[in-house]
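To fix ideas, we reproduce below a protein record of this kind.
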Amino acid sequence: MTSAGTTPDVADRRTDGTPASSSVIELTPASIHAPLRPVDSIRPLKILLITPKGKKEEDTSQKALFSMAVGVLVSITPAQHQIELADELFGDVINYDGDYDLVGITTRSLNVNRAYEIADTFRARGTTVVLGGVHVSFNYDEALAHGDCVVSGEAENLWATLLQDLADGKLQRRYESKNFPPVNDVPMIDYERIFLSSKRGKVDSRKSIPIYITRGCPFTCSFCVTPNFTGRLYRMQTPEAIHEQIATAKRVWFRETRYGKRPWFMFTDENLGVNKQRMWDVMEVLAECNIRFSSFISLKFLDDPKTVELLVKAGCAMALVGFESINQETLKAYNKGRINTAADYSRIIADCRKAGLPIQCNFLVNPAIDTYEDMKATMEFVVENALVMPIYSILTPYPGTQLYIDYKAQGLVVDEDWDKYTAHNLVVRCDRYDPYDYQVKYMEHFLGMFTWRANIRRVRMNNNKLITTVTSLLFRRNLQDQLENCKHGTRRPLAQNNLPPPPVVVSSEPTETVVEAH
């Protein structure tokens, strides 16, 4: 599977690096380019779209109101079709007895085993099941054992064809985004239709409304699936579309309460800022919308005072940044050496805090690189800089990433129980340490970021005392539970402990020019 901006040599391989199986039924050129009939000539379909909950997926009060993958499908489905949504993250009960023409299930590695269970149950009752999402896009042979059809890649350019084929009784086994015209635009989300299709009600300012206004990312971080899924072609909605989309979402989903008069939006964009001027234009639009929001933002933009000022004026209450490591050599191994400069981290954090913009940082721990001393140094960095809600994850090579392709080829992936792909479980080879001990040490250092002393310092140094206090206490309690579960896990023997530490795979950094879509 591929999408705009990706290279065929990577995209046409399965996750183990081998060519795609010839047993998969491919779309023929004729069917790919066959013109669609008028929408109203296709018989109405009854569709159920499901977001599964992974068996080890944590409960959180900060979950999005709906999956953006499902939101896109709802928004691009012709009006005559009836849609129902079931989201297990909110405890929705799936109706296996419904007379659905189609059940669509979106997948990530974390929830794919549960998705397969749901799919198998529906298929046993004779219901047609379509599987889509990041995981099955790169594991389509695996997915075809559980679904009547698998969608690989972005769905905007193929969904109408799939529905027409289903109505005509000609559903293909697989639809690949790369076989259709490229997705050059970012579709608007139909918040009203999603609201009517879901079981959610209006929310106050404590719950985030998901939104995205861009697609793709030109960077090639080896642990990120974006380059091979949505592609490196960066696309952005027009200012008018952004304004209209937010206005609709506010009207449909938000209600004022004593907790606040402004809604909270969570931008799910892979990278909100690539072009500085266009980002500034977006911030001016958001400033008119009277909202609060959080977003993933590249570190280089936070090192620019004007950009930070515009973010704060626009209502940005939290910038989410992938720091990954405080070691510059490690950043190079992840293809982030040109994006992040570890020596600047503390200064940028302090400057943003002074300007009124707190930063939430993501860090990775890699058994091929990081020692227990490195874990301690990361923990001390987080505490010293009083970071709000830091995220600390074990390096996990998700299918579709360059990291997975490289690690799989070198035999470094030792566990493919997808339920364990939570970013808190060790699924790669660990030769320098006992794998059990390494995972426990990781969790101990993560919890160490939320000691009472660390939490007091965090609250004192950040502006929003209430949110910082509540989130710090919730993180502490959750991590205490996870540490206990980790300690009661199964001790695995040292894997090939007669070998030196596994090599650090360093993928080449991009040299070609990345074109931004306008």
Observations:
- The chain has a mean pLDDT of 85.
- The CA atoms of residues 436 and 461 lie 35 Å apart.
